[in-house]
Amino acid sequence: MKGTILTIGDEILIGQIVDTNSVSIARHLNAAGIVVCEKCSIGDDRRQIVQSLERTLQQSNVVIITGGLGPTKDDITKKTLAEWFGCGMRYDETVAAHVERMLASRGIAFNDLNRGQALVPECCTVLFNAHGTAPGMWFERDSKVIVSLPGVPFEMEHLMQDEVMPRLKARFDLKQIVHRTLITAGLAESMLAEAIASWEEALPPYLKLAYLPNPGAVRLRLSAYEVDGKQVAREIEERFEQLRQLIPQYVVGYETATVQEQVHRMLTERRATLAAAESCTGGTIASRFTALAGASAYFLCGVVSYSNEAKQHVLGVDAASIEHYGAVSEPVARQMAEGVRRISGADYAVATTGIAGPMGGSPEKPVGTVWFAVATPTRTVAVCKQCGTDRGQVIDRASAFAIGLLRDAIAEEK
Amino acid sequence: MKGTILTIGDEILIGQIVDTNSVSIARHLNAAGIVVCEKCSIGDDRRQIVQSLERTLQQSNVVIITGGLGPTKDDITKKTLAEWFGCGMRYDETVAAHVERMLASRGIAFNDLNRGQALVPECCTVLFNAHGTAPGMWFERDSKVIVSLPGVPFEMEHLMQDEVMPRLKARFDLKQIVHRTLITAGLAESMLAEAIASWEEALPPYLKLAYLPNPGAVRLRLSAYEVDGKQVAREIEERFEQLRQLIPQYVVGYETATVQEQVHRMLTERRATLAAAESCTGGTIASRFTALAGASAYFLCGVVSYSNEAKQHVLGVDAASIEHYGAVSEPVARQMAEGVRRISGADYAVATTGIAGPMGGSPEKPVGTVWFAVATPTRTVAVCKQCGTDRGQVIDRASAFAIGLLRDAIAEEK
Questions:
Q1: Which listed residue, of A171, A284, B88, B360, carries a Cα 20 to 30 Å from A42's Cα?
Q2: What number is the ipTM of this complex?
Q3: Are A15 and B37 an interchain contact pair (Cβ–Cβ within 8 Å)?
Q4: Is the pLDDT of residue A107 over 90?
């Protein structure tokens, strides 16, 4: 079973947006055992849509299309599909009522353009878009499936999960795809490859190995396509165990989810609570946790103490420490973590204070210098780390590092 | 002049990474007047690489390929290209010396795999990769250009900028592409389209209009391909000026301007300060401001008061109000804004309290219900708004709406 993802929109071709839709669709298809053989992005152009659809249908059983379903004239996907299928359009009363209700709740009048969103090709099955005004569409031709979804990421995501995947699973007899990733750190890619050459050579041909270098880590992914999932997952586990014995000091762990998801699970399981005091990360750590459903069970309070006064008055950081050591210092990081832990009553607290740039650096504390602290029921740890030179990079790396430090501190706590 | 971007790597097709390389390459090509007609991602597969290359060469003068140049066995792009061009490989001493020097600086031995990185197809021009070990390669055939670049974003970016773009500009006589974006806020896409219908109809045919809806904003992009850039840029400016006169209250700015950037400018100019008290937006408002360079001049403090205790003890919200009206209510939103304004000493404060979901909704206050408040030196305003049904959507929309409310309140303040 093969699939192609076709994303439509001039904004993709001119680099105005990052296409994350195809990433999410690729994950869904892979998880269900559908091998994605190509991802292709094209413009809002009738001829190109038809050509790409015809070409990709030759190589795949399923083509998932996103984009071009808005109410305005530049969006032509729906019309183009109806023409290609040679069918007329019908007015879907259910879609119309839904769009009207959605707009009414936001105080927006239902106009002709919105009415146009309820027009769908006669030959399609409507996929109900509970979260938006453009319906998804399911087509079949010559035992192949073509799905058209709106380009708004969360609408697309809900439709993939709730409508498309259940139908694909019911429609086709799907085999399984297995991907497992092991993370190594401390060996450059070429040295790692040398160190594990014999292990790599002994891999059975249906296990495909990929090296994915990252700054500071090389991930090793084993993939198997259209197999008996359970059996292959066991096989991969054994192979990874051999690898762990071969290079024990370099194996960091297995990539499953994000570190904040890992912390989220740990805190939820332990029924422990969290608070954050952020200076240079400016609310990013809090927002990464609060983006996760269920965060309110453990996330009590975050303080973005950007000014020294906020550090002192809200978190109780000692003015003399700021004066003597500077706001970006170990004592201040420690007092921030302990302060937010105290005022919130949380079990764990994480704090950051650093220089995000582009201004504010000095020879002793250049842009990118960040002090981190984690306060637990039994102790406070503090670390200093250089997190890059670009403001966005510093915020991103510092947030990730802080959450990693928090994870380690929680794991060590009995 | 047309171009295609071909990104190679199984990790893209399984959704393990987000392909940002093609975004950056698309921007470079567009800026130089090369129309990107397709972006295509395929696996590390010899047959697929050859087929896609041959196909995309038919539609474009330039094909930029990234990925598959690492030292390990899963990377096959270089070998495949050499085979396709029918040429042998040569050992490039300059590349070898550079790789050896780079590795030595990190204390890594130069092994056979690294030596392999200095092997390049005889028919290519090497593009020196100052930041990595895999060289870029420039090929020509039948007056078309094929460029192969490493997939590491940082290395690819430097090669595009320093090596590829200057050569493309020298090699081809390029026309220009103009993209200009105007940002509106406050009108839904369909209402905006209705309001500007006459303006849209009067656009000359070579100006292509696109609607790009975002939570809280709709961007309008005008694009013109292969034109006299200066003349068209002036034309677009005039068209946007007409639009500004048509809907003055809804125009936020141009290009990538966001509402937070507008508030950032307003506060910086007025030397006024800001604080935020966030419940359902969980730090997102703070992080949007603190992501901007110079935010420390006005952003004093943010409080993510997720728990009722944090609302009471940190912000001074009255326990009786929470009890009587609930945490998601007008009195609580007002007290949060006033509370964070008081403890931080800021001139302006914004507050959100709502139900992000998926749990916590009720018939009276369903998921997506958010109360907003803005406190200024002279008054506090509060508004309730329905912000959607999906957690990410609610957080995103509520953050955008809160920042818009803040902008309006600052603008009205003398």
A1: A171
A2: 0.74
A3: no
A4: no
